[in-house]
Amino acid sequence: MSAIVLIDANNFYASCEAVVDPAVIGRPLVVLSNNDGCIVSRSAEARALGIPMGAPYFQMRRELERHAVIVRSSNYGLYADMSQRLMATLESWMEELEIYSIDEAFGRLQRPGTTHTTRTSNAGTSTTAGDLRSWGLALRRTVLRHLGLPVAVGIAPSKVLAKIANRIAKRDPTWGGVFDLGALDDPTPWLEEIAVEDIWGVGLQWSRWCHLRGISNARILRDLPPGELRRRWGVVGLRLQRELQGHSCLPLVALPPPRQETCVSRSFSRPVTTLAELREAVATYLSRAAEKLRRQRQRAGALTVFVRSNPFDGSRFYANAATAPLLLPSNDTAVLLAAGLPLAERLFRPHKSLQKAGVLLQQLQPEKLLQHHLLVPQTAEQQQRREALMAVIDDLNRRYGSGTLQWAACGLQPTWIMRRSRVSRAATTRLSDVPVVQAVAPRIGSS
Fold first, then answer.
1. What is the 3-state secondary structure (H, E, C) of 316-370?
2. Domain 262-410 sits in which CATH superfamily?
3. Contact 257, 238 (CB under 8 A)
């Protein structure tokens, strides 16, 4: 019998910060969003202080200083690299792996047929044959030893139950970060402790509908007559109920479907008021979007540039977008810049202070399939040379750090760039940030 496993890194951003700076281990720490705006991650010690998620930093600054909480800006390069290392580690432990998010993955493996000693859990149930908890504990130790990241492991017969098991593993320290819901004689007592709004896949409207009918927890939803669910929620409702009953209805997606769109957008550290600065921002975002396309092995058939001012400006609020089709789909940065920069000029208004801009690459298609256009002649040799140039640029930026080679249109030292005044070092992706240890040989004859 197969089991579904959900591995989730605890407080992922905050845990990554502790990997590159062991001095913060055991101390309260929060990570801020773009432009150091809001709190988006908290260490366990910060959670214990009651610091709320999503709170604006300027409102919480004095409270954080009073409790000596360490504050870090988002270090997305570090988090992406640690995520790749985590997923690479998990792959060797699973028969199948689905990367669900930057810090979360589903897996599948066969449940062993050996019988384990029965023991009583907090809810009064007992374990049976095929308990995978020892496997989960070994996985957890390996990830902590290799990467320094604490993870929670939830094991169950289905994805929805694996989510519930992972939630229990995180919140109940007696299980050591691993909970096997599928190894219990009767999971009912545990399902009664899970509020219906905390079930994976139950949104705001669904939870309201459930509470109006007295459906307050996962056990009641599991045992609800299926006809009532079918009338209101159709196949989606029945599938969720079957998952709660232990039937795997949601398959693992080992290879994610091709992206339909790719977006890069950022808020500015200060209002942008000149066309030159807007062109630099659009060029920077287009360059990053083109790199994403090449990693995804896709080409774009159209691109959109959008801008907006401060939404709290009232009558002075300005938001606009412009789209340009590409006669020949491309992931060449130069081609995208040639099509996108004129759109920035169309959107710019001298009397409007812009707070945010972004680019959206659309009509994506596989890189291998390229339908040539009669009005855009391009020989095979020209195409190969451009692809080789893009590959060299990407390789140098990966090897020596983002921005090692960049396009002049992006500017040299832009002042509008996203504010990250408390960013940590990128010790896993930047050679200059790797800690250096000085070893001094002892003197001969010294004790």
1. HCCEEEEEEEEEEEECCHHHHHHHHHHHHHHHCCCCCCEEEEEEEEECCEECCCC
2. DNA polymerase, Y-family, little finger domain (3.30.1490.100)
3. no
**d(Cα 6, Cα 29) in Å, to the nearest integer?**
26
Which of the following CATH numbers is that of domain 10-75: 2.30.30.140, 3.30.70.20, 3.90.950.10, 3.40.1170.60? 3.40.1170.60
Say if residues 197 and 164 touch (Cβ distance below 8 Å).
no
Q: Where do the domains of the chain lie?
A: 2-8+78-244, 10-75, 262-410
Which pLDDT value is given to residue 447?
A: 54
Measured CA angle at 63 (ends 30, 103), to 5 deg: 15
Residue 209: closest CA among 221, 219, 194, 200: 221
| Topology (CATH) of 2-8+78-244 | Alpha-Beta Plaits (3.30.70)
**What average pLDDT does range 133-159 have in this prediction?**
94
Neighbour order of strands in the sheet with 178-180: 96-101, 104-110, 2-9, 151-156, 178-180
- Predicted confidence band at 421 (pLDDT cuts at 50, 70, 90)? confident
What pLDDT sits at residue 446?
Answer: 58
Contacts of residue 351, Cβ cutoff 8 Å, sequence gap at least 6: none
Tokens of 312: 């709290």
Question: Which residues, listed in sequence order, are joined to residue 127 by a DSSP beta bridge?
Answer: 184
Other beta carbons less than 10 A from residue 164's beta carbon: 27
Structure tokens at 380: 């095979």
Range from 145-159, 238-252, 360-374 carrying the lowest mean pLDDT = 360-374
Question: Are the C-beta atoms of residues 284 and 305 closer than 8 Å to each other?
Answer: no
